[in-house]
Amino acid sequence: MAFRAPMDEIAFALRQAASDWAVEGLWGELSDGNGSAVLEQAGRFADERLAPLNVVGDRHPAERTADGVRTPPGWREAYRTWREGGWAGLAASPDLGGSGLSHLLLAGCLDAWNGANMAFMLAPLLSFAASDALAAHARPELRDLYLRRIVSGEWTATMNLTEPQAGSDLSDLRTRAEPAADGAFRLFGQKIFITYGDHDLTDNVVHLVLARLPDAPAGPRGLSLFLAPKMLVDSNGRPGQPNDLRCVGLERKLGIHGAPTCAMVFGESGGARAWLIGEPHRGLTCMFTMMNNARLAVGLEGVGVSEAAAQAALAFARERRQGRAPGSTGSDQSLIIEHPDVRRMLLTMRAGAAAARAVCYRTAAAIDVAGVDGPARLAATERAALLTPVAKAFATDLANEIASLAIQTHGGMGYIEETGVAQLLRDARIAAIYEGTNGIQAIDLVQRKITLREGGAVRDEIAALGRMMRNIEGRAPAATTVGLARGLDALSSATDWLLASLMDGRTTDALAGATPYLRLFGLVCGGALLGRAAWGAEAGSDANAPKRAALARFFAENMVAAAPGLAGMVRDGAASTLDGAGLV
Ligand SMILES: Cc1cc2nc3c(=O)[nH]c(=O)nc-3n(C[C@H](O)[C@H](O)[C@H](O)COP(=O)(O)OP(=O)(O)OC[C@H]3O[C@@H](n4cnc5c(N)ncnc54)[C@H](O)[C@@H]3O)c2cc1C
Fold first, then answer.
1. Using a 6 Å cutoff on CB, does residue 165 contact ligand 1?
2. What is the distance in angstroms between the CA of the first residue and the CA of the last residue of the chain?
3. Which residue did the predictor score with more confidence, 180 or 287?
4. Strand pairing of 156-160 and 205-212?
5. What is the DSSP string of 115-153?
6. Which one of 163, 301, 382, 435 is the catalytic residue?
7. pLDDT, tens digit, 9 for 90 and up, residues 364-394
8. CB of 531 within 8 A of CB of 15?
């Protein structure tokens, strides 16, 4: 079955996320019809242009040729349509030639596009993130020369962080930046795993590179951010000579075959020309602007792949006959959708995708509000910081489980490439690894995020989720509200335990429980949001309302039901986790 971006559900979930805040001038597009038109076109682009190319990319991986890296057949044409559609500048400021629409609306579009073709969307995803970093930190002349062309889609951008000895921990990066007489810098070093580090979609590629200046202090505080284009350009932006940097190899990998993953070398012949972005030694701060938005965008990869997997599994289960379901009276084989265990898998997929979507959109809405001067800014900044690791890791962990369940639903046919669900699992796998592994996201949540304002930010968020739950009491089924309330208690007590452990200096114990805590957070947050969408004040009575209620109920009564167990793992799991005997 062909993928169909669920634009009605996406639009509904966007309005739900926006309903939390009343900020003047924000999200007008969600109510003035402009947003509906954008979403409709985004859905059409996903269904008609991107989805058919997904399997093409899987079967014809990006290739390194004598003329540079070549993307799969049809991708150049799709990129041209993408660019001509003005999508590259959707959320960029009109001053830079962008459309100035919200991150929330962009999240809805990314959800649809990622579901259609995650590997293709990695090029735009990195450009969106780089645009944010350059808009915030680059000098005006660099913005004019490079950022405008990224915003128009004329060029794409990359993120060059990883080196063989420095992945999760960037403090050991070795790429050097030397000041040159012309006021620019020269880069020397090697980067690995650089997504779209070279390709044929555009004439130029703008690399954002973390490197170390000669006088840099050791460790993460010594890193600076540089811009190094693939092609050097004149003052009008016309590409001329190639810069001293190149892709020296492409990785063969489990999934996202269409997206080139490049080994890059800088400075083989005198140094790659580069320009400093932001202050010297403040590169990580600049990069975090980029990484936070990229982390949410990777969470949205999880949402998109989950949606695609759930759609494929449901379509299969409606056609495949096998066995006799309990209670079936005829002699014919039953459709597998009639088997309780298959229903469990299908509902887990659909409810999980909806919950991950809601958590990611809540994060996107907070990012938008955090960008507007006003009384809500501080609360929104805290919520965005708190939820970004949850959105990234919860959504991508679920995507792996949901893609795996889609294979399981297909039985043996799922393991065969022809059905396409195997590709979804292979593609989704990386989303839990790049942009900070999910383990690193969990550590970020526990060590840096729940400690914000001495626990004040996380307690405010838990209180907000509690209000949502109380508001649906009486309308939601009793077992649903009880399930949600138990989840909230579990989250609250695990949070208190972690904060107390960190205060007492028992950091190792706290970190041992970081991953179950992040899952607990995602489940409770997702459960509250699905409950609000089903029975809250703005739940609506459209044709999809009964489905939303069924998914919210399943999620609360079956998935949030794991919350007390997860809280127990957070509190009591450290001793057995840290007992070294099992590993020797
Ligand atoms: C297909 C692909 C595309 C990529 N694209 C890019 C890109 O465009 N740009 C870029 O710069 N990089 C990119 N990367 C690199 C990616 O971000 C890193 O692989 C990732 O950050 C993990 O680093 P690592 O591979 O060195 O693993 P390691 O850091 O060695 O981690 C190995 C394991 O140890 C765990 N671990 C490490 N440190 C800690 C810690 N302190 N506490 C607890 N656990 C820890 C990790 O969670 C992981 O499970 C890409 C990678 C791949 C495979």
1. no
2. 49
3. 180
4. parallel
5. HH-HHHHHHHHHHHHHHHHHHHHS-HHHIIIIIHHHHTT
6. 435
7. 999 999 999 999 999 999 999 999 999 999 9
8. no
